[in-house]
Structures are given as C-alpha cells and as structure tokens.
Amino acid sequence: MSGLLSEHVLSYIGRQSEPRREIATRRDIRKYAVATNNRQSKYLNGDVAPPLFHLHLFWEVVPLSELSPDGVSIDTLLPKFPLEKAMAGGLEITYHRPIKPGDWLTATRTLTDIYEKSGRSGALIFYEVLMEVRDDAGNPVVSEKTTRILR
Amino acid sequence: MTPAPTVGMAIPEREHGCDVVQQMLYNASLWNGHRIHFDTPYATEVEGYPGLVVAGPLIGDWLHQVVDEWLGEAGAITGISYSNRVAAFVGETITAGGTVTDFDPETGEVTIDVHVKNDRGEVLAPGVITARLEK
C-alpha cells in the first residue's frame, strides 16, 4: 500500500449512516415514471414502482444552506479524500421484490471499502457504499453497491 | 414479450431525446441540485462541459427500461451491474439496447448485455441485467 490513504481515512471503513425510513406514494411513483420517460401504464399510474425508484426515495434531502456551491449535498458518510476529482462509477443492484405505494422502507448505507490502485495517469482511490433497503418486517427489498473512483 | 428469448437475440431498441424540461423534472424528483444539470453558464464556463450534463442515474434508468419494456408482464428484472463511462448532454439523442447472452428455460432466468449509446456510436454506459421470466 502506498501512502495515499491515511489510517484516519481508512478508519472510515465500516461506518454506517443513520437508517432512514420513507414511504413510497403513488404520486411520487407517477412523478418518477414521467420524469424518466417511462411508458408502461403500471408505473405511470403509480400501481407499482419501476426499478431504481429507491434512488428517488432515498436521495438525501438537505437544507439549501448545506449544499456545496455546485449544488451537491455532501455525503457525511465519507472522509475527506486526498483525491477529489470524481470519475465514472459503477452500480450493482439486486431487486428482491417490487416497491408498491404505501410501502414503508428503511435504507441503511455502509461505507464498505476504500482502496487505491495505480491507473495509467496516476493513483486512483476507489470506495464502495452498500445501501440495503428493507421493509418494516426486515425483509430485503433492494441491495445496491456503488463503486466510485477518484483521481 | 414475444418471441421467447434465445441467446444472441437483440431486444428492441429505444431512443431517448435528452430534453431540458425532462432533466429538470428528473433531478427535482430526486432532489438533486447539482448545477451541471440545469445551470448552462455554470456547466459550460465553470466546469467546461459542452452543455448541460444528463444525470447519470437517468441513463441507468434507461438501461432498465429497455429490458423492462421487452419483458412486459412476462417477467421482472432481478439485478443489474453497470457503469457510467461517458457523459451525455442535453440535445443529444441516445439509444438503449441489448442482447440476450443466456437463458435457462428451467428457471426462467435470462441475462442480457445492455448499453446506452450516443448518436456518435459511443457506449455511454455498458451493463448486464438479469431477469426472471414467469413460468
């Protein structure tokens, strides 16, 4: 391991966000379906949520005063990294069951890994965040692993 | 969904115009205030982009939709793995498509390589979707 990632930065691995509980509503599903150009009536009517609707449900809602100047909400799960330019990221999602209006769902995010690799143009930092969405009975609904790359 | 999947079969493509009103509604729906999606002077002069950037997760949604429309009521998506590699900009036309790479008639599990391309043929987001067909 080279010296890019300090003990302090690495100590963030395993950090977990406060669980957030939200309700899926028909109106929100309809808005999401319209905004994504969906053309299947079950989604446009809000009978069931399309895949990826959990992004809408659990995007951080923060006061305007807490947004950075470029309008981004700061992810409090993350340490201050020594590299800050975000490159492409990847997602791996498992859908355990569909989301329907009236579902109360709870999301917990965990910073599961931070590591570095050397790329063609220098060092890269990777980090992974796992988001688990469960229903009130504790059953899994969506599992999402995001990998982001910084250079 | 017709006909039944066979390995190597292309699923019907879908074009999306990257409309500015849609970008606004999509990012508002998420509560995403990132200026690169709606503030043209900021996106071009400060960040140096050629125009307003299409939200990455919206491109991810279009990967899902091209498969989900093909499945219709015959099945459901069980998972996806994809990455955003190249940005799309408001005003471009992008096309989502895919090819069946595996199908198990016993379990109904189908695997589809998916992509979104821009009108220059660049792959913006490649991925793999798994789905399960109702028996």
Structure characterization notes:
The complex is a heterodimer of chains A (151) and B (135). By secondary structure, chain A is α+β, with helices and mostly antiparallel strands. Chain A is built from 4 helices and 5 strands; from the N terminus they run αβαααββββ. Chain A has a 5-stranded antiparallel β-sheet. In chain A, strand 3 and strand 4 (122-135) form a beta hairpin. Chain A is elongated. The two termini of chain A are 16 Å apart. The model of chain A has no long low-confidence stretch (mean pLDDT 94). With 135 residues, chain B is α+β, with helices and mostly antiparallel strands. Chain B has helices at residues 20-30, 40-46, 56-71, and strands spanning 10-17, 75-83, 93-104, 109-117, 123-133. In chain B, strand 4 (109-117) and strand 5 form a beta hairpin. The model of chain B has no long low-confidence stretch (mean pLDDT 95).
Low-confidence parts of chain B = none
- Apparent shape of chain A: elongated
Q: Widest sheet of chain A: strand order?
A: 1-3-4-5-2
Radius of gyration based on Cα positions of chain A: 18 Å
Q: Which chains share the greatest interface?
A: A-B, 33 and 38 residues
Structural class of chain A: alpha+beta
**Sheet with most strands of chain B:** 5 strands, antiparallel
Largest sheet of chain A: 5 strands, antiparallel
Average pLDDT figure of chain A: 94
Count of extended strands of chain B: 5
Helix content of chain B: 25-40%
Number of helices of chain B: 3
Provide the fold topology:
The complex is a heterodimer of chains A (151) and B (135).
Chain A: H1 7-10, E1 20-23, H2 26-35, H3 41-44, H4 53-58, E2 86-95, E3 104-119, E4 122-135, E5 140-150
Antiparallel strand pairs in A: 1-3, 2-5, 3-4, 4-5
Chain B: E1 10-17, H1 20-30, H2 40-46, H3 56-71, E2 75-83, E3 93-104, E4 109-117, E5 123-133
Antiparallel strand pairs in B: 1-3, 2-5, 3-4, 4-5
